[in-house]
Design brief:
This protein has about 150 residues and is an alpha/beta fold. The chain has five helices and seven strands; from the N terminus they run αβαββββαβαβα. About 35% of the residues lie in helices and about 15% in strands.
Length: about 150
């Protein structure tokens, strides 16, 4: 098995290919708190056209932005292309195992979420893995490139 060296970073093409290929994204650690980064990412990805599935085990959180909240990945009642994770890095291996069990194609750790064991678990089962990146940022990165050839 060949593993990705997640310290080397990812090509823009690799990230764009993933974001173009996925439709349904389960967000583990989604929050209804509008001040939390996960809320903003959920909002933008949903408004961009992704089928977002918030995942949060708190029983008092049943809906975020009109979307049904699931207590775990295994409770989701439809196929999931990508699992995006807003949790502590030490929680990522267990989430990777769940992502494999539900047949996800991609495991994506949000900025600050990186764990080599989780990457191996996912990659051993054929998932693509991205860690320590934000899909919202990567989605719009091609538009942010400076045009250095322009005159001032």
């Amino acid at each position: 098995m060949t593993y990705t060296n997640h310290d080397d970073g990812y090509s823009e093409e690799h990230l764009q290919d993933i974001l173009k290929s996925v439709k349904t994204i389960a967000m583990v650690g989604a929050s209804p708190d509008k001040t939390k980064f996960s809320y903003g990412v959920l909002r933008v990805l949903s408004e961009t056209g992704y089928d977002m599935i918030p995942v949060n085990p708190r029983p008092d959180i049943t809906e975020i932005r009109g979307l049904k909240v699931y207590p775990s990945l295994s409770a989701i009642d439809r196929p999931v292309d990508m699992v995006e994770v807003f949790r502590a890095p030490d929680e990522l291996p267990a989430i990777a195992r769940e992502a494999v069990e539900i047949g996800a194609k991609v495991l994506w750790g949000q900025i600050g979420v990186r764990n080599d064991e989780a990457a191996r678990i996912a990659e051993d089962s054929g998932l693509k893995v991205v860690m320590d990146r934000c899909p919202k940022i990567e989605l719009f990165r091609p538009f942010w490139k400076p045009k250095l050839h322009l005159g001032i």
